[in-house]
Design brief:
Helix content is 73%, strand content 0%. By secondary structure, it is mainly alpha-helical. The chain folds into 3 domains: 37 residues; 67 residues; 74 residues, no CATH class. The termini are far apart. 11% of the residues are buried. It comes from Klebsiella pneumoniae. Belongs to the binding-protein-dependent transport system permease family. FecCD subfamily. It holds the Pfam family FecCD.
Length: 222
């Protein structure tokens, strides 16, 4: 929760700063509005050449980091006890995420729900193992992005941005994934609890209470 609030606060500060700078120059403001809409209309290949090397290096680093990310799944304390370098893994992961997200956003703008939805979809399809979920995310994310762009061009050619289509596609799926998550972690209530738990729940002593208390079963009372 703290990480989410920190991200929201940082995004608000940076957005206000960028809007303030853009208002000082009308030409920059028009370019900023076009960029904020989110689109795959890349005018030249020079923009792709700038971010190609960082994206390739960060993508390979993310795939190589999959085993280390699996070790963090049980929690930081358990990972530390098992010998994992938690701080180093988190730092490398943060750098990789920053490079990938920053490069993609710089080229096409902020496109909603694609990066937020696809990791959850990959975990739902192949499980929580990052050795499988990361490659699936790497392949499925651009496929979904191109699908949303094609849908937008077919509905309103040249007018409907891909970020609008991705929001309509991604929001219901993400809500569905969030709603079904508690059902997966819920216990199986069809299995009855042990007799000792039933006895403790209704105030009665369990059947083996004398034996556990040190008394001999069946011994006569004094």
């Amino acid at each position: 929760m703290r990480l989410t609030l920190a991200g929201v606060a940082l995004a608000a500060v940076l957005e206000g700063l960028s809007n303030g700078i853009a208002l000082l120059n009308p030409d920059v403001y028009d370019q900023l509005r076009f960029w904020q809409a989110g689109s795959l209309d890349i005018r030249t290949l020079q923009t792709l050449k700038i971010v190609l090397l960082p994206v390739v290096v960060a993508g390979i680093a993310a795939l190589l980091l999959s085993r280390a990310l699996n070790s963090l799944s049980p929690g930081n304390d358990t990972a530390t006890a098992l010998g994992s370098r938690v701080a180093r893994t988190q730092l490398i992961g943060l750098i990789v995420i920053t490079v990938l997200c920053g490069s993609a956003t710089a080229v096409v703008g902020p496109i909603a729900f694609i990066g937020l939805m696809m990791p959850h979809m990959a975990r739902w399809l192949v499980g929580a193992d990052h050795r499988w979920s990361l490659p699936v995310t790497l392949l499925a994310t651009p496929a979904l992005l191109l699908f949303a762009d094609v849908i937008g061009r077919l509905l309103v050619p040249g007018e409907l941005r891909v970020s609008v289509v991705s929001a309509f596609l991604g929001a219901p799926v993400l809500i569905w994934l969030v709603r079904r998550q508690p059902r997966e972690v819920a216990c199986d209530c069809s299995v009855p609890p042990p007799d000792s738990q039933l006895s403790a729940a209704d105030g009665r002593q369990p059947a083996d209470f004398p034996a556990r208390a040190g008394a001999r079963p069946g011994a006569p009372d004094d």
